[in-house]
Design a protein that fits this description.
Elements (H helix, E strand, L loop, with lengths): L44 E2 L7 E4 L7 H12 L4 E4 L10 E10 L2 E14 L21 E7 L13 E15 L8 H7 L5 H35 L1 E2 L5 H17 L6 H9 L3 H29 L5 H15 L4 H7 L7 H21 L1 E4 L9
Parallel strand pairs: 2-9
Antiparallel strand pairs: 1-8, 3-7, 4-5, 4-7, 6-7
Helix pairs in contact: 1-3, 3-6, 3-9, 4-6, 6-9
Length: 376
């Protein structure tokens, strides 16, 4: 089970989820732009001969025509088509077109109103009692359903609340299963906002190829990093693993255990595990994180990686876009801790990311998946 593990350095602008899970050994970072932790990493890491390192990458990263059709067929399940029926009374399994409005204490609440919504009776899409309350209702009728939201409902304002849904059954419809072979230009124009079936196919294929290239790059970087760690020797400085594990657990507890809830209560309710199991899991995660970080720090030193202001600006711009941060200060604040300021953390992360990128370029890559492409 993963608990927001540090995101591995496999993306162009990889940034971890929690700054505390990727900080250094607790000492200050050098003020120079070469942002390596102040412990002497060369004493703890012996790198393998990585120049021309042979790496196999599992996975199929090519897109076939059948792949595109399968993707479109899966997409079509989210855009169902319906035709009207003459049926007049709602039964289990029917698809009904309804208007509804939900009110709490006589006031409509956000997200509780819709028109021409198609609901499958018996799908358990709505809260208990809603769908059952429509069985036996005739087309054109309006009913009030007195219901109660579950205590653990995601909206705190509605959790456990008594509400009234006023529902009108507009019609009973039949769901039409449609596949790629059934598509027409008129259908995709009316329902999927594409000019033609060919346009839908071509744009889907383009998207899948772009996504697969990203997957190829990520898988390649991860395989190279794994190979580097496997063939190198890494010894973690005394106390560093314990410190990072404790820091993560402290922040995890602070974020999730509020209003008197203990860590044991939270873990039991959400992960069905004990504190001991949690400690063991996080220790393993932190061990893997440290292996990644320290071997790349050693690589930075071995290759003489230097800090590039323009490259870092692009890295930050990508991180802001991916994380929906409005300003650089907002991004830095998200990774700030008592051990290290957010900008220094990201400068360090940028150097490690660059080192891995340059290492990939030096390796001999073989793809082993079905119809795998050539080496990168």
């Amino acid at each position: 089970m993963k608990f927001k593990r540090t995101k591995r350095l496999i993306a162009a602008a990889a940034v971890c989820t929690l700054a505390v899970s990727a900080i250094g050994c607790g000492s200050s970072i050098d003020s120079a732009k070469n942002k390596i932790r102040s412990y002497d990493v060369e004493k703890y890491v012996t790198l393998c001969d990585y120049d021309g390192m042979k790496v196999e990458v599992a996975g199929d990263f090519d897109i076939s025509d059948d792949d595109v059709v399968d993707y479109i067929n899966n997409m079509l399940t989210y855009y169902p088509s319906y035709e009207d029926t003459d049926k007049q009374t709602v039964e289990e399994g029917d698809f009904v077109n309804i208007d509804y409005e939900g009110k709490k204490d006589g006031v409509a609440f956000d997200g509780g109103t819709a028109k021409d919504y198609v609901l499958e009776i018996g799908s358990d899409t709505f809260i208990d009692g809603f769908e059952d309350g429509l069985i036996g209702v005739n087309v054109g009728d309006t009913v009030d359903l007195n219901l109660t939201f579950p205590e653990n409902y995601q909206s705190a304002d509605l959790a456990g609340a008594d509400v009234v849904f006023t529902v009108t059954v507009n019609k009973i419809v039949k769901k039409i299963e449609i596949s790629y072979e059934d598509l027409t230009d008129d259908y995709v124009a009316s329902n999927l906002n594409y000019d033609s079936v060919d346009a839908l196919y071509n744009e889907t294929k383009s998207y899948m190829e772009s996504s697969n290239e990203q997957n190829r790059s990520a898988a390649t970087r991860e395989a190279v990093l794994d190979k580097l760690i496997e063939n190198s020797k890494v010894a973690i400085p005394d106390g560093l693993l314990e410190m990072k594990t404790d820091q993560y657990i402290q922040q995890f507890t602070a974020q999730n255990c509020k209003e008197g809830k203990t860590l044991s209560d939270y873990l039991s309710a959400n992960y069905n595990m004990s504190e001991e199991d949690f400690q063991s899991t996080i220790t393993k995660e932190m061990q893997e994180n440290l292996d990644d970080e320290m071997v790349l720090e050693a690589l930075v030193k071995a290759e003489g990686e230097t800090f590039d202001e323009d490259g870092f600006a692009e890295y930050i711009a990508s991180a802001m876009k991916n994380g929906s941060y409005e300003t650089e200060d907002d991004l830095y604040a998200a990774y700030d801790s008592e051990y290290e300021d957010g900008k220094s953390f990201l400068e360090h992360r940028y150097l490690l990311t660059n080192a891995l990128t340059h290492l990939v370029d030096q390796c001999e890559i073989t793809y082993t998946g079905v119809d795998a492409g050539g080496a990168e």
